[in-house]
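USER: Write out one fold?

ASSISTANT:
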Amino acid sequence: TTDEEVAKSEMVISMIDTTASVMETTDDHVQNLAASMEETAAAMENVATGSQEVSETAEALKQMTERFRVEKDDDWSNPVEERGTAKLALPGR
């Protein structure tokens, strides 16, 4: 075995070690990325759930405002059923 063959062998071993190290680092990065993507997906699901709850609350509030809407010619002296809700008599009327 010549010195040149030994040097080439050591260079090949070094390249294999470097490749293995790069592959291990890449694997670590891939695992970290996968974990981050799972966290992002969970956060997006929470945002979607929160958005749905906000929409439902907004709709409920719209329905509530319709129950309390007063028109100029409304007769509040005699509470009657209207649109499924009872009108409330205002004090002093």
